[in-house]
Design goal:
single chain; alpha+beta; 4-stranded mixed beta sheet; 10 helices; AbiEi antitoxin C-terminal domain-containing protein; DUF6088
Amino acid sequence: MTIAKSVYKEIEHIKPGKLFSYQDLDVYAEHSDAVVKAVNRNVSKLGLIKVKKGLFYKAEVGRFGPMAPKESEVIQYFTKRESRTVGYVTGPALYYRWGLTTQVPAEVTVATATSKQEKANLSGLRITTIPARYKGVTSSNIELLQFLDVLNNIERIPDANVDDVSSKLSLKLKQFSQSSIEEMEGIATEAYSERTKALLGTFLEHYLHHFSEKLYRSLNPTSTYYFSYSYKMPNAKKHWHLIFSK
């Protein structure tokens, strides 16, 4: 069987609306140049829509013509690799999903463990990937990473009140198990900024009455960090070097 025929056969079995790249085709590993040529020369014949260089999907035809992939399919492409989780939604789209802001995001930002940065635009849905701070992304620690990302940007969430965001995050924090809290402490210590570690330590002590020795020892005792909500948290300054700022 020729490379072209192998490519056609594989593409036949890809469901409409699912994004794929050259690398997703089995024969690409051994015949990369031939695969690229076979796909690019036969985009129309194969019923493909080109999103950007090297990225395609098979159009699903509805009552009003070809349909773009569902948002969930697009996000899955950027967050999964061979059934392995490599990324997660963060930024404004996350803030909106968690009810921290009412501002509808103009694009979806995906943090990935891969170093490759990508952009795609499908029928108004803009996707941008950025490097994740913590490279050990798994399906089980996504919410922990998202929580830390929100803490990292807590005062930069659009159309949001810091007091309100803190209150909503406290409810999220109370849902985590003890083992998840310990895992988040380790991730923060390894991959996040000093201020984010201080904020996490403050939140854990204030809302869960849990003093994190791991986070406390990881901070520079001579440094200070600013947080506009710290005046409402008794030990924010004493234990975590957080100083009130307007």
